[in-house]
Design brief:
Helices cover about 30% and strands about 20% of the residues. A hairpin with a 6-residue loop joins strand 16 and strand 17. Helix 12 crosses helix 13.
Amino acid sequence: MAYQIYPKSFCDGNGDGIGDLRGIISKLDYLKDLGVDILWLSPIYCSPCADQGYDISDYYQIDPQFGTMEEMDELLSEAKKRDMYILMDLVVNHCSDEHEWFQKAVKDPEGEYGKFFYMAKLPDGKLPCNWRSYFGGPVWEQIPGSDWYYFHAFHKKQPDLNWENPKLRQAVYDMIKWWLDKGLAGFRIDAIINIKKVLPFRDYPADRADGLCSINTMLHEARGIGAFLGEMRDRTFAPHDAFTVGEVFDEKDEELPDFIGDNGYFSTMFDFKETIIGKSPKGWYDSRIPEPDEYRDNCFLSQKRSMDVGYLSNIIENHDEPRGVSHYIPQGDCCDRSKKMLAALYFMLRGLPFIYQGQEIGMENTVFHSIDEVDDISTLDEYQVALAAGMKPEEALQAVAHYSRDNARTPFQWNGEAYAGFSTAKPWISLNPNYTKINAASQAQDEESVLHFYKKLIALRKNPEWKETIVYAETVPVLTEEKNLMAYFRKGEKTLLVIGNFQREARTVQLPCEIKQVLLTNCERIQTQGVQAERQELHLEGYQVIVAECK
């Protein structure tokens, strides 16, 4: 089982209001007790933090705000003592404009390091292409005091690396091997689909009034990324037997075996089908929250798509998404019971479950009173998009608040005391005000808490009697004609039924099998009654979930 840590918001070990390596080390026993095997750390490399560490200025150094390389070595050592494995974020589509490579490129755009990036002059005054960056505006930015421009798919302080250049690729591979030799177990690979561009650059039809088009339009056409990813696998990951999980959007269906098949580029990749439900090309202001049946259907689509190919990593949230319980559970119904139901429904699917920090205690979206409280650059851009679409400021704030990445980046709620036990100083970002009610300390004492339910899920997955079925067996959807119900078999060595009532109203459903024993539920009572000798009905309370062995 894997767990994502956003270091800046996990635990502050030195009292400066920023989470750090010392804080992570202090919580390893908590994570071990939860049942965690793999820890993925969001970036802790040196960075000016234009995009919270995803703009790296030195791949070989720990940013002082997080600690020292000695503390990183200590974390690796302490994790090993607990049979836990550390993954770091591999961010190699782009670096920071403060990286030595880019600084040298700026001084000599036509020289060796200029070729590490995409740089161009504008002889006719026209940008090489009209693609829109992920954070808004053109992907081209002028080098100050120069007639040269450089390409950035993300923030203007995140220039894209030119993967077409074999010297750049070798420099990246050297860095990867350096970390693996140090004892890292592997990487989560960031935004990797973006490394392959359609070249030469060209325009696409504009999709907004700004005259630009989504960069996704280009990605749908891009071909040939496999040459890069296969080479990286063969030169770095494979010789070290490293574990890798890819952040992959927009891959083509026929490419899935290449990514996670028997000789895939990665060990696994995240399933994002559920996270993109309802997203609008116009912007967050035009997006809609998914319905329960949409969530169910997309989960099943991913399960079917990957069954004979490889292994997906399942999530309900991460550092780039709103809190899962606030996003997938209908508004007004977020409570301990519904949180447990959502946990079981995603956790019992075939694949590797990832838990994002705070998910295991049911942390929720935070509250924004003003756009001035927002830190996330993506949210700030989407707020401007909403204003440009004609929304009033208060409407625009409400429209983007739900999707803000800051929702996942508020400090971990360790207890109900000052600063939620995250730090002894004021945190770098505001706490979610509900920390006095939702926190790890109170839930540790409550056997019926969300935290204890997650522990039960993890223990069930690791139980030798059920492990083979839960980890590897096929997912077979059932009762899909029922509205607001998610039910499926896990058919392998044994047969398990997972069934969740995705609504507040109670209901009775006809069981697709005879239950031998209930392994886990989030309600005290289980009500079944025979209809005929070969049929049974199951009464489900609102948001009740059941994991049961079938006869």
